[in-house]
Design goal:
The protein is α/β, with parallel strands linked by helices. The chain is about 45% helix and about 15% strand. The chain contains 10 helices and 5 strands. Strands 1-2-3-4-5 form a 5-stranded parallel sheet. Helix 6 links the parallel strand 3 and strand 4. The N and C termini lie far apart (about 45 Å).
Length: about 200
């Protein structure tokens, strides 16, 4: 038996335990976690999450499960059923690293996903006009499919400004905050604003 399932169970139960106090302090906070398509397809994630919920967390609102586009689109025939079960628990599903791997646009439209995370490799080359056109096309595609878009890897004000100019108002990266312990994030002032 490998360690990935027991490790995932410990991680997810800790996230569920920490979610309620985090959302009490920051009501719009979201906590994302990554899973593989294999973990999703064998229904283990669903069982782990339903086992983790207890008096400390009455819902999964604020949880975002991320699966890479290649794994999700290539590796799962029964993805819709599994995703619908998780969505039914209140978990949001995001396609992670979009644009980095292989995608089937037809399959993308069939999945019950409402979040798309553009891979950081596009952000690192926003000075290239062709990259900007690709980002514009992805944003248009996401809007047409009623998906929320988040861009990963924003490290400079120039990158942020280009993305804002394209109409992308959700991003993450070192420009806004460095990774920190959960306790540190809970001690931030309620009025904290990123750079």
């Amino acid at each position: 038996m490998g360690l990935i399932d027991p490790l995932t169970e410990v991680m997810l139960c800790q996230i569920v335990d920490d979610l309620k106090p985090l959302r009490e302090r920051f009501p719009e906070a979201k906590v994302a976690f990554n899973v593989s398509a294999k973990q999703l397809s064998n229904r283990r994630i669903f069982r782990i999450l339903t086992n983790c919920i207890d008096a400390k967390c009455s819902s999964f609102e604020g949880l975002v499960m991320e699966v890479t586009e290649t794994e999700l689109i290539q590796g799962m025939e029964d993805a819709n059923l599994q995703l619908e079960l998780l969505i039914g628990l209140g978990i949001e599903i995001a396609i992670d690293d979009f644009g980095k791997g292989y995608s089937s646009l037809a399959r993308l439209g069939q999945l019950p996903i409402r979040k798309l995370k553009i891979d950081s490799s596009f952000v690192w080359s926003v000075q290239d006009p062709n990259t900007v056109k690709i980002i514009q096309a992805v944003l248009a595609l996401a809007r047409a499919l009623h998906m929320e878009v988040n861009v990963e890897g924003v490290e400079t004000f120039f990158q942020r400004d280009v993305l804002l100019g394209l109409g992308c108002n959700k991003a993450k990266g070192f420009l806004f905050a460095r990774p920190c312990l959960w306790q540190t994030s809970c001690s931030l002032p309620r009025t904290w604003k990123p750079a």
